[in-house]
Amino acid sequence: MAKKILTVDDSPSMRMLLKSALLEQGFEVFEAEDGVDALEKLDGAEPDLVITDINMPRMDGFGLITALRDGRVRSSLPILVLTTEASDEKKARARNAGATGWIVKPFDRDKLGAAIRRVLH
Amino acid sequence: MSLLSSIQPDQMRRVTIAQGHSVASRDLDLVYTTVLGSCVAVCLYDSAARVGGINHFLLADPAPINGESGQLLNRYGIHAMELLINEMIKRGAARDRLRARVYGGGSMRQGLGDIGTQNIAFARRFLANEGIPILGEDVGGTSARRVEFMPAYGRARCKSIQGMVAEQQPVPVSAPCGDVELF
Q1: What DSSP element (H or E) covers A7?
Q2: Chain A, window 92-121: residues with a beta carbon less than 8 angstroms from a chain B beta carbon
Q3: Is CATH 3.40.1060.10 what the domain over A4-50+61-107 is classified as, yes or no?
Q4: What is the mean pLDDT of chain B?
Q5: How many CB atoms within 10 Å of residue A74?
Q6: What is the pLDDT, as a whole number, of residue B109?
Q7: By the CB < 8 Å criterion, does B122 face chain A?
Q8: What is the pLDDT of residues A60-69, one digit of tens each?
Q9: How much of chain B, in percent, has pLDDT values that exceed 70?
Q10: What is the distance between the alpha carbons of residues A36 and B109, in angstroms, rounded to a whole number?
């Protein structure tokens, strides 16, 4: 059965680009436009993986990771950050909040696919 | 007296924006300037936060790699725009208050002409997708342009430049591409 991925990004263009890359690799995709929307979409529909942006209105990626790791989802749910940010300080913040990995935009389809398959085992 | 009328042009700080760069600021004494041939610059402004930003990009459709040249162009363009929007948001702008102006995309010489048109089309398509209204444009044609943008006031000025301007070659929008680090 196809693995289900929740993508969280405030840019419709980026969501579209990411969705086409993920569908092409055989994943199922559902989308949210920021952290608040993601928490609503996750209510009763747990995915196999979350891919989230960092800079978003209402609730950013750090807020979302913290909320998810606060017992809302199974603790083994992988969360990948996909962002234009590349600073060590922000990476450390995401790692401490419970992120599984960090990918810098613009993403490479093959590297993204390989990282996803690795965290999904 | 409005903020703008108190500006002393000769006291403004001028910062030149090179291809591949995306910047934003609230500084009252700052003018961003850039020269465009086939390249496109998008200026964004949030009048409530008084934050303005500009980028300068040239997306070239490279020789098809695995048949995905169009997607590659799209990906780098989206990246150039996202960098700009992030710079704006970091300084207090809100995505739904952003307004845009688009400049450049000239046909500077045979063979590169289509690139300018593609870059204009990309900028318009991206801004429409994101729901960011375009308040003004000065695009296309055959002459180069100099754009001056005062980020704190959202005020842009665009002039045609007569004569020869060294046309730039496309450079990648960002060097590190898709670096992956698993924790």
Answers
A1: strand A4-8
A2: 95, 99-108, 111-112, 114-115, 118-119
A3: no
A4: 84
A5: 8
A6: 67
A7: no
A8: 999 999 999 9
A9: 77
A10: 49
Compute the average pLDDT of residues B151-161: 95
CB contact under 8 A, B182 and A91: no
- What is the nearest CA distance from A57 to chain B, expressed in angstroms? 8
Give the tokens for residue B49: 């936060």
Chain A nearest CA to B109, separation (Å): 30
- Taking 90 as the threshold, does the pLDDT of residue A7 lie above it? yes
Q: Is the model's pLDDT at B112 over the cut of 60? A: no
> B41-66 b/e with 16+ CB inside 10 Å = b?
bbbbbbeebbbbbbbbbbbbeeeeee
B13 by Cβ neighbours in 10 Å (0-12 / 13-18 / 19+) ranks as exposed
ipTM: 0.88
pTM of the full structure: 0.82
Residue at token pair 């979409």: A41
Instruction: Kindly report which listed range (A18-32, A98-112, B58-72) carries the lowest average pLDDT score.
Output: B58-72
| A59/chain B closest Cα distance in angstroms | 13
Q: At B71, give phi and psi (nearest 5°).
A: -65, -35
Cβ count near A87 (within 10 Å): 8
B66 band by pLDDT with thresholds 50, 70 and 90: very low
- Whether residue B97 is predicted with pLDDT greater than 60 in this model: the reply is yes
Residues of B with Cβ-Cβ distance to A107 under 8 angstroms: 75, 177-178
B183 vs A contacts (CB less than 8 Å): 95, 99-102
